[in-house]
UniProtKB/TrEMBL annotation:
CDD domains xref list: CheC_ClassIII (cd17911)
SUPFAM superfamilies in UniProt: CheC-like
Gene this chain is encoded by: cheC
InterPro entries according to UniProt: CheC (IPR007597), CheC-like_sf (IPR028976), CheZ_family_phosphatases (IPR050992)
Keyword Hydrolase: yes
Taxonomic lineage of the native organism: Archaea, Methanobacteriati, Methanobacteriota, Stenosarchaea group, Halobacteria
The protein's name: Chemotaxis protein
One Pfam entry name: CheC
Source organism of the structure: Halorhabdus tiamatea SARL4B
Gene Ontology terms describing biological process: chemotaxis
Length: 212
């Protein structure tokens, strides 16, 4: 049975995404000691079986976590090796040679921690709640393998929110492309949205238009 969401709540979803992006940028700026923004370039809804196609088959870096409180589900971020190198060099001040050294690997893991927790905490703050989650594990694998492992416990009727984002480090003339996937439990997510007062959401704060 397809997931049904009140069309008026789509702007609420936009607001949640913007809140998560803003909080992730703040957290990353504090970690790296730089000014940064996380801009959502596109937002789309896809069915879980289509996520593998969205990720692709090329080797890619990823980090995923399971959410232990509403809206439950999975949060996954992915980025290509070029982005991984750029982020590692920014945070460590060292050049990535043929392979990442231990310091650079640790820096990438910390970036994943910051972006993940920052994004989810931003959503939780807007919802006026907390969302317990584990620590994401950085991995490098084929896209199909990543999708299969990350979504093994996801319900077929789940709503999958796919975000193409640009992490812009303004004072370093650097920008990183990161793709985010939020796949909440459908019933729990709809229940959270239904509890929100539409009047509390400022339409001027919802600039991203969902793409179907």
């Amino acid at each position: 049975m397809p997931l049904l969401i009140d069309i008026r709540k789509l702007r609420v979803i936009n607001q949640l995404i913007k809140a998560g992006a803003g909080n992730a940028a703040t957290s990353l700026g504090e970690l790296a000691g730089v000014e940064s923004t996380v801009e959502i370039k596109s937002l789309a809804f896809v069915e879980p079986p289509d996520i593998a196609r969205e990720i692709g088959t090329d080797p890619i870096y990823s980090a995923s976590i399971r959410l232990n409180e509403p809206p439950y589900g999975v949060f996954l971020l992915t980025f290509y090796e070029e982005t991984a190198r750029e982020m590692a060099e920014l945070l460590t001040g060292t050049t990535v040679e043929s392979e990442f050294n231990q310091l650079q690997k640790s820096a990438l893991q910390e970036v994943c921690n910051i972006l993940t927790s920052g994004f989810i905490d931003g959503i939780a703050n807007t919802l006026g709640t907390t969302i317990d989650m584990g620590t994401p594990t950085l991995r490098f694998a084929d896209g199909e393998e990543i999708a299969e492992d990350a979504l093994s416990h996801v319900r077929v009727d789940s709503l999958s929110i796919v975000l193409d984002s640009l992490v812009d480090v303004t004072d370093r003339d650097a920008a990183f492309k990161v793709r985010l996937f939020l796949i909440p439990d459908p019933g729990s997510f709809v229940n959270l949205l239904d509890q929100l007062d539409l009047g509390e959401i400022d339409e001027s704060d919802t600039e991203a238009d969902p793409v179907f």
